[in-house]
Amino acid sequence: MFERQAVSFHPCVPSLNSFAVFGSPLTLAFAFDFRDQRAINDGGKIEAERVDGCSKLLVNCHHHMTLVKRIDRDVVHQKRMGRLCRGVNARLRSRSAATMPSAPKRRLLLRAILTGLTLFLATPALAQDRAQRLLAELADAPGPPGFEEPVRAVVVRELRPLADAVSYDGLGSVIARQGSAGPKIMLDAHMDELGGVVRRVTPQGYLSMQMLGGWLDQALPDQRWIIIGSKGPVHAVTGIRDVHVVPADERTRVFPRDGLYLDVGARTAAEVEALGLSPGDPVVPDSPFTSLAGGRYLGKAWDDRVGCAVVIEALRRLRASGHPNQLFVAATVQEEVGLRGARTAADLIKPDIGIAIEGGIAGDTPGRNSEETQAAIGAGPGIFLYDSSAIPSRKMVALVRDIARVKGLPLQADLVQGYGDDSAAIQATAGGVPTVNLVVPVRYTHAHNGVMDRAGFDRMVELVVGLVQRLDAKTVAEMRDFTP
Question: Which of these, 39, 149, 245, 473, is most buried using a 10 Å CB contact count?
Answer without folding.
Answer: 39
